[in-house]
Amino acid sequence: MVDNSTSIVIRESTIEDLDELERLMKTLTDMFRQKFFKEQWRLDMKYKYDIGGIFVAEDTLEKKIIGMILVDVGRDLRSGKRVGRIINFIVDPAYRGKGVGSKLLEKALDYSAEQKAVSVKINARRELKNTVQLFKKFGFEEIYMVMERDLS
């Protein structure tokens, strides 16, 4: 990997990126010891390409997708206001701590504003302290806690 931030570009994703995004999602699900439902994910992604909001970080020297962020802007059922939701956000482990996540998050916020969202929400895991700090750096605040129980 070349450590040259000028070789990193943030761009809207195309369907041709799908295999590389799958690799990143597999990394994300493995990190959380979750099962990756490849076929369902690919089907969902093909639909999401029709509506937009998928952005990637690409190392143009390495010709490799090194990060992704997916933001969905829609109407909040309770307030009726337009709200952005960051659904998937991952940076290749080899590129973390180099500002790639900040660039992706900035792009997602800009996109949400362009889509007339009044706020953006994201679910974050407390144990990912660096990620939580990044969100706080961008002005995100903890609003509520989500709890879960495994039934299997």
- What is the molecular shape? globular
Distance between the termini: 41 Å
- Number of E-type strands: 5
- What integer value in Å does the Rg equal? 16 Å
- Residue runs with pLDDT of under 50 for 5 or more positions: none
Main sheet record: 5 strands, mixed
Strand residues, percent: 15-25%
Series of secondary-structure elements, N-terminal to C-terminal: EHHEEEHEH
Main sheet: which strands, in order across? 1-2-3-4-5
Q: How large is the count of helical segments?
A: 4
Which bin fits the share of residues in helices?
A: 25-40%
Task: Please summarize what this structure is.
The protein is of the alpha+beta class. The chain is 34% helix and 24% strand.
Describe what this molecule looks like in 3D:
The protein is built from 4 helices and 5 strands. With 152 residues, the protein is of the alpha+beta class.
Summarize the helices and strands and which ones pair or pack.
Elements: E1 8-12, H1 18-31, H2 38-51, E2 54-59, E3 64-75, E4 82-91, H3 100-114, E5 119-122, H4 129-137
Parallel strand pairs: 4-5
Antiparallel strand pairs: 1-2, 2-3, 3-4
